[in-house]
Amino acid sequence: MVALEPQLFEDIDPEKRPSLLAALVPVVAMLGFLSVGIVLLELDPQFPLLWGIAFTGLFARYHLGLSWADQYDGITDSLLMGMQVILIMFVVYALIATWIQAGTIPGLMYYGLELLTPAIFLPMTAILAAIVTFAVGSSWTTAGTLGVAFIGIGAGLGIPMPMTAGAILTGAYTGDKQSPLSDTTNLAAAVTNTDLYDHINAMRFGTLIAFSLSVVLYAILGLRASGTIPAGRIAEIQGAIQGTYVVTPLVFVPLVLTFGLAVYGLPALPALGVGVFAGVLTAVGIQGTGFATAWTVAQSGTAPETGMELVSGLLQSDGLLGGAWIVTIAIAALSLGGLLERAGVLAVLAHHLGRLSRGEASLTGVTVLSAISMNVLAAEQYISIVVPGMSLRNLYREQGLKMENLSRAVEASGTTTAVLIPWSSGGLFMAGTLGVPTLSYAPYYFFGFLSPLVLLCMGVTGWQMTSETRAESRETASATDGATGVTGGEE
């Protein structure tokens, strides 16, 4: 767990605090670099982000007076906060390769094609992903294991991969928001000084509405997208799988072990690490893979020859080394976010956004805008929870609102939208793990749009907006003023 102590507006020396105009300069420059580099020049994101880092560093040094040492510290703090995310990216890439070699993911595809039909596949994917994530408390664990199998099953049923990815993410983030085991759920409660179960209860109705609407949309989409499966297609896919892998219930040992440890309470990173070892041993014991070969697969990936192009493509993976491309983007984005945070840019933007609020509706809207802005600028969902959660709590207190209104708002708009940002750690992880670009799955990730929209409706109508008594307000003020830091870990 990494201690998070974001720089707030009041903490910055007034003589070194950037003006709103100055804070906007590196933000506008960064967005310009990304637009020119990615859209016009068709570059990968690494170098446009590097341009942004160079510009922000020079601007912070020569205009804002931030020393090079302070800039290095900002980058280091941001990378330290994201280190568990980076490690999970590497481990999941190795896990996917070992589970393919072990027959775990091919086995899930084989049996899933027998149990699911095109018409019910999308809504069932969302529901199953929500249940599993609620149990294990990690949307990333669900996406990196069952999510990969769902992508293969959907392709076999004729469902476009972006639709399947959207359904996986909808279920994963629904379960994540309601799970007491989730790091982001605990973090949102911690930074707002809200009881964990008060926070979960405050999210329940909004989450249920957004998820139910999403499931209905997936049901409609499934009916329109599935069409008619050519005769013998499923049998042909199953034959290709069975001709390449030993298909037996024993291949699910890595899956059962990994999820069992997660449900028991083991954090995501060690649980996924155990999954890698279990995958290697299953590949050796069930598939007859050599011990050294199994670890080579974990490092370099899989390229099976199944005799069917669709199946071979779905079961191709890059292994641990394949995570390097994603991780370099994550490192660059986290470094840029660390510079912006240490220069006071994020604190100034959050402060000025907070000044726009004049009532429950505008305060809710400001919280949504602040959380999404932090996702865009800092590329890390923890910042989208921590900075608005700590910066805006006095405004909620001044309007007599309970802190669970704020905790609900930062999670409903921060956690759920992180995977819509292509350069954020969440967007990078999901795109790399599921094999679907962020902008391709985004239109089908209904929960990511509906969750903040339902939250905004709450703010406008006042529904579920709970107020404090005077005694509760004094108690909350005393508790939040005494808070010194929060902790966060991997998703």
From TrEMBL:
Residues 469-491 are annotated as: Disordered. One of its GO terms (cellular component) is plasma membrane. The chain crosses the membrane at residues 20-41, 47-64, 85-109, 115-136, 148-173, 202-223, 244-266, 272-298, 319-340, 363-388, 409-432, 444-463. It is found in: Cell membrane. It comes from the Archaea. Keywords: Antiport, Cell membrane, Membrane, Transmembrane, Transmembrane helix, Transport. It is a multi-pass membrane protein. Residues 171-463 form the Na+/H+ antiporter NhaC-like C-terminal domain. The keyword Transmembrane helix applies. Its main location: membrane. Belongs to the NhaC Na(+)/H(+) (TC 2.A.35) antiporter family. This is Na+/H+ antiporter. It comes from Natrinema gari JCM 14663.
